[in-house]
Every structure is written in structure tokens, then in C-alpha cells.
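Exam revision sheet. Question 4 asks you to relate a sequence to its structure. Input first:
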Amino acid sequence: MPINCVTTQLRSGVYVAYGDETESAIGVFDATTDKKVGEDFKLGAHPESFQLEEKGPKIFVNLASISQIAVIDRNTRKSRNGSFRVLETNFPMALDEAHRRMFVAARKPARLLVLDMDTGKEVASSSRRDRHGRHVLRSGP
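Answer key, C-alpha cells:
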């Protein structure tokens, strides 16, 4: 039984993230027939959230328990070497494909990270606070 189930639809496939530790994966189902498509994408850690590139083959999977974002190619079904390392407990994530940016919210410490979608490098973060205690987005690591 899945611990966490997230669905998203792209073309005719429905992607479902589930499981914990070694039993975790993303499965794909045909939206019109409800049949499983191919083998699952194995993850090795609990998938907190994930995003699919709309104009490319990548799946970005937030693996908060190991502070990583896995990058998987949907076509080859292979995980990219050197998945993105995130130093905090990363949870929600969103993509800005036009500008090749990934926005990741972290809990400890609470902050917003902006990563380059292709390299995983931090391009901005909200680690600073203004005089009112609000987070301020700053460029650079």
C-alpha cells in the first residue's frame, strides 16, 4: 500500500509516486485504459513530491529524507548521475521551464531555493530576512 500517492497527468500518462525507502518508485498508467505502462522508476527514498518537464523528458523527484532531488529521464528510464543535493529538508517544488528554474521550499531552516534545472546549482535563496522578519530572495549561493 502506498504511503504517499501523488498523481499528475502529461499527455495520456498518469504518474504516481509511492512508497518509502527501498520500496519507493514512480509508476506510470495509461489514462484511457488504466493499465500500467512499463516498469516503475525506482527511487530508493520516499518521494515527497515530483514535477515533470512538459517540454523535455525529465522527472524531478523530491527525496526530502535524503536531501536530494533525483533527476530521471522518462525516455531512457535512467536516473541522472549526481542528482541535485539540497542541504535542507526540501518539500514543495515547482518548475519554471521557460527560465530553466526550479523553486524548492525547505523547512529547516525555512527558506525558498531557486535552482538551475540543468545543473542543480543554487541561483537564489531566501535565507536572509528583512527588518520585518520576512524572507528576502537573494541571487547567488
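Marking note for examiners. The chain has one domain: 6-139.
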